[in-house]
Amino acid sequence: MMWLAAMLAAGSSALLAETVSSGLRGPTPLNEEGPAPPMLPNKNTADREVRNYPEQPPVIPHTIDNYQIDLNSNKCLSCHARARIAESQAPMISITHFMDREGQFLAFVSPRRYFCTECHVPQNAANPPVGNDFVDIDSMLSREKPGSHR
Q1: Distance from C-alpha of 54 to C-alpha of 122, rounded to nearest angstrom
Q2: pTM of model > 0.85
Q3: Are the C-beta atoms of 17 and 30 separated by less than 8 Å?
């Protein structure tokens, strides 16, 4: 009799997957792959985005379409390298990118920090698919402390 219950459960889960929809997936049943949403254009501005928490990598405020970042070339360094910032007026990459695993400073970008888009990402104007109540560190610090008076 247990095999019958298992068969019924398997059949009902397939039926359930066909009828249940998710807010993020839209009307596409759970057992099907829906169409991908259209890609939104990236922001392309000189403005620097505010960081939301300590040690957050800065986001990329401009488009990086067709940038080559591989073992042989890093297009980001054509503006952000120490030798190019006066000409490009771009911010220099962090001094931490010139450190090895032992904290020793190197003359060039550390190999473990060479692939920029592992941490730094371009931004677009997408609306978040779900709401959140994230509060950045500056807002947290500026809130009234418990027991204090204004």
Answers
A1: 19
A2: no
A3: yes
